Amino acid sequence: MQTRRRARLSSRPYSAVAAAEPCPRGWLAVRRSRPSKRARRVVTTIPQGDGDDDGTPLTDEILVGIFAGLPDFSDLVRCAATCRRWCRLVSGEAAFICRAKRCWTPPSPLIRSLALGFFYSPRHGAAPRFAATASASRRLGLRQPSLNALIQGLDDGLFDASRLVASRNGLLVVELQRRKRERALKLCVCNPMTGEVTVLPPLGGKEIVSPFACTVLTADDYYNNDDKSPVSVVCEPPSSPSSYHLLLVYARRGFTACRTYVSDGCRWGPEAKVRDAAPLGKKAMASMTGTGAVVVRNVAYWHVKNIAFGVRLDTLRAEHVGMPVSGHDPAGNTLLGVSPDGRLRVVQVVESMCATPATVKRRVAINVDTRRATGKEWDLEVIEVVGRFLPAETTWLRLRWMCEKSGVVFFTAGCGDLRKDVYAMSLDKQEVEKVASHHDGGGGIPSSWADLRGYEMDRTSYLSSLVMDEDDP
């Protein structure tokens, strides 16, 4: 039986007991092991009037039960900010609270702090590395760690020459390097926040077809509906916040197929046919692998050419949503997202020329189209970025990755070919942060930012990290 472990699939045995122990290499564990800057004090009496006093005689157990029953996630975050005691309870019991709360009352707020940065491949054959935002660097002490840091001392070469496949809900999917003349597909799912790494059973050459699209599904995706009840699905929904399904979609001759890995059973399910799917060729399928998927009302969507291709999680029936008309060809510069009230979003870069009697100026803007509840029309919002957030001399902009739970989009921009910067932009707050820079000829960072995958932690990890702010002045 496949177990969660932090090592390469190899001939040497692994201890199931060691695999079940919490990993000390996760970002949360590393941050907690750092000495606090705040001087600890010994409490000999009941605190009166300080930050630990919440003014209520309720026990910890009662308070945790109240927190677990809150309908809105933002209410839970506000409770954690009330006092130190409540913060420690919310953070310490984050797994229980999220397990008890199957879904949150819509609209679900977009939490900017969930987005921590992005993974990228620095060079051919090297393990993927991580570039953190400024806030993530302060809170977690991240300094461009490699994925190999999660398995240091166990199997140091596991992620060498690997390929980033998907990133969603705090989980990263990596395709491991294949040996020569080996056709089996080896995937690995890891949670950098907890340090948990799972090597999945390989899929033989006849069990999967490349290229394939991939996404991670968690309990929120199956319970996020109006009546708060689980949808009727082909396989049982994930049983806990740490459980997940891995959905692969690929093209067989004459039809579109899919296959699901279930973490609770540690197994791959049988191949299934996606019903009523439009024919997808290899080029279309390859385009789905680089932009990621979003889940809206039990449908997983990928962007394919001029449509959003969806697979229903309950019936495995395909859905096809036409793209909004922007008036210009975005040349594939399109990402999908989710609005705070749970509607499908399309984010596109639109370029146009503004001519004046003296000059001809290129205009670069980001169009955010949100699908209306009727499903037939779109609400458009235009965000001017050049001259407002980016230097006026910026000549190009390319969207790279959309983090759906935080509403943060990662994009690259620059002037010519000499400088290529990576930015993170909150669509709702319209705030932009430069995350990384690259000058051709130095720095060891690829000019194309190959395989860039944005990363945002899940809600359980976010709640667990709140107590870290109490350790800093």
Automatic annotation (TrEMBL):
Gene3D superfamilies: 1.20.1280.50. Pfam families: DUF7595, F-box-like. InterPro entries: DUF7595, F-box-like_dom_sf, F-box_dom. Residues 149-347 form the DUF7595 domain. Residues 60-92 form the F-box domain. SUPFAM superfamilies: F-box domain. This is Uncharacterized protein. It comes from Setaria viridis. The lineage of its organism: Eukaryota, Viridiplantae, Streptophyta, Embryophyta, Tracheophyta.
